[in-house]
Design brief:
Two copies of one chain form a homodimer.
Chain A lengths: L5 H13 L8 H8 L3 H13 L3 E4 L5 E4 L8 H9 L22 H16 L3 H4 L20
Antiparallel strand pairs in A: 1-2
Helix pairs in contact in A: 1-2, 1-3, 1-4, 2-3
The structure holds a DNA duplex.
DNA sequence: CTAACTAGTACTAAAATAGTCCCACTTCGG
DNA sequence: CCGAAGTGGGACTATTTTAGTACTAGTTAG
């Protein structure tokens, strides 16, 4: 269903929580803050740390903090950290679909993928946590749908 | 992973196969044509028929044909027929997320959803089967970051 | 030197997907 | 009028993904 994994959603929430200040938060603190299990949040933070979206501080009194300003972190990065490459189809990046010959739709899927990646890359975490929808204006488009 | 189901992909291929001519094709014929199992193709065609993307002819010598010109069928419709509503997040349409209070990102997810829907709505089946990427130019966008 | 943390990974459970099959109904052709 | 060739619509099962948990090792403040 073209659906993001829950992790991507969780990841966003965790990032949003941390974006409130620049302080160091331990995994358990974040877990309490966003209302999820400690283990799960811990896992998510590790994933985010691996992609350098949050910086970790080890040892006692350690924890995580946002690695950059919310404005400089894109949703594409968050999603990538949680779910891997943003690609709607399996065979668009790596290609290697055995039906390559029959199916000439690959190139066009790639184009669609680019649009989506771009849309996600253009939305920053800062915009994402803004109470009002100021996001989303890639071009002049709104939900103009379906003519074509 | 923000991934489309295989069905959406299969559906596209089936549609692409049928777009070659306006003739009636039986499920087994299509199956042979695209190299998939008859049962699977049959299921896909049924799904497409339910959304009126293909018209069915019952009885012996029956089968399916494209309900409209490839130019008048959008990828959004095909994906909708196979996977249901195009929405990246669970709680964007129906909302009703118990963390509503904590999480202010909903509205912005919706905006992203719109972009994606729009991108998909703008690509017709005809464009999709075109050998060259003539699709995809919503704005002047390139593929900024993403696969990082 | 120990308590409070993160790092990394392996494992398990749950859910969504994909694929198959079956039975009822419709129509063509002999 | 009968049977073969089709679709319509589910139900069912296996497989794969996803989500969640636990465990061990390493790091640092006090």
């Amino acid at each position: 269903m073209l659906r993001l994994s829950k992790f991507a959603d969780y990841g966003t929430q965790v990032m949003a929580y941390m974006a409130k200040d620049g302080a160091v938060h331990s995994a358990s603190e974040v877990a309490a803050g966003v209302g999820m299990g400690v283990s799960t949040v811990s896992k998510i933070l590790k994933m985010l740390a691996r992609e350098n979206l949050v910086a970790s501080v080890m040892g006692a009194k350690g924890g995580y903090m946002l690695a950059r300003h919310p404005r400089d972190i894109s949703m594409a990065e968050v999603i990538y950290a949680m779910d891997g490459p943003i690609s709607i189809t399996e065979c668009s990046g790596t290609s290697a679909c055995e039906r390559e010959s029959i199916c000439s739709t690959r190139v066009n899927w790639q184009g669609i993928n680019f649009i989506i990646q771009d849309a996600l890359a253009k939305v920053s975490l800062a915009e994402m946590i803004a109470p009002k929808p100021q996001v989303v204006n890639v071009s002049g488009l709104r939900s103009r749908r379906a003519s074509a």
